[in-house]
Protein: Ribosomal-protein-S5p-alanine acetyltransferase
Organism: Legionella pneumophila
Amino acid sequence: MNEVIIREITSEDKEMFLCAMQSSHALHHPWVKAPITPEEFDEYFSRYQKPNQKSYLLLSDNNLAGVFNISEIVRGYFQNAYLGFYAVAAYAGKGYMSTGLKLILTKVFKDIGLHRLEANIQPENTRSIWLVKKNGFRYEGFSPRYLRVNGVWQGHEHWAMTYEDFIKDNNEALEKDHINIVAYNTEWPLLAKAEMVKLRASFPANSVIDIQHVGSTAIPGMASKPIIDIQIAVRSLEEMKIIAVPILQKLAYEYWEDNPDHERMFFVKGMPPYGNGRTHHVHIVETSSRHWKGKIFFRDYLLSHPEAAEKYQQLKIKLAQEHKYDREQYTDAKSEFINQILKLAQN
């Protein structure tokens, strides 16, 4: 792929724009109606000269590869805008739009200074949904008869990104999300109990089989990361995937959608840049899963074997110093000790 740039549309782009849109009509229909006549271009161009509208062309070697529209820019408390886009047929499916979207996100969040960007897409438009999802947008729901497209009111899915989503993988955010072992805090059990009451009350009746405080903060006297780990047992993880995400989002949790472990749903509260530091983890698992039994067996064994708890504490302190900014390495390095304890606990 050749190098691409984005720039705002100008009146001199009229001929190039119309030629590209006319050749791409079949690609765009029925998802979007791009200007294809001189009159439609003039109206379009005039609209995007307003202060709350922006139209950016995606160019490759001065050829039009795609269009991104930022519309209805709102300042004040909202700091929001809506994203529309369409590819030129000759460049579709070749990575140009994904590269262009990354440039647009930088423009929106860094240069324009917005906090939120929303894309509304018809459910059948799977290529556009894949594009925004791949680039970090999150699904926020569906509205029937939301936008009129080609004279028909169509339902749309809502996909959005906030500034926090945009910067979550940058070095500053990753450094803030470091591993820190602190002395045991007698408030941890109280915080866990209060959170478990809140969680149980938030889920539908009978959907939660059991809920328990697990992890190092559940071991009195043990130094730990100051993060309350709570494990929730359910009958069906597939059912929970439908209801748990919006419930926990309302309680300020972020869902790890890309978790490679398909036997567990994992949620984090307070993780930078969404917060100032992790305070809670929620693990949702089925009662038959290895996670449910394993975390409880491990906790209970350490509760009844102080010498093992002390060894685990010293191991964590050592590993936290070695892997302060790498949670994956920190977790992996503990696995041998944890597996040894689980074998002892189950004998």
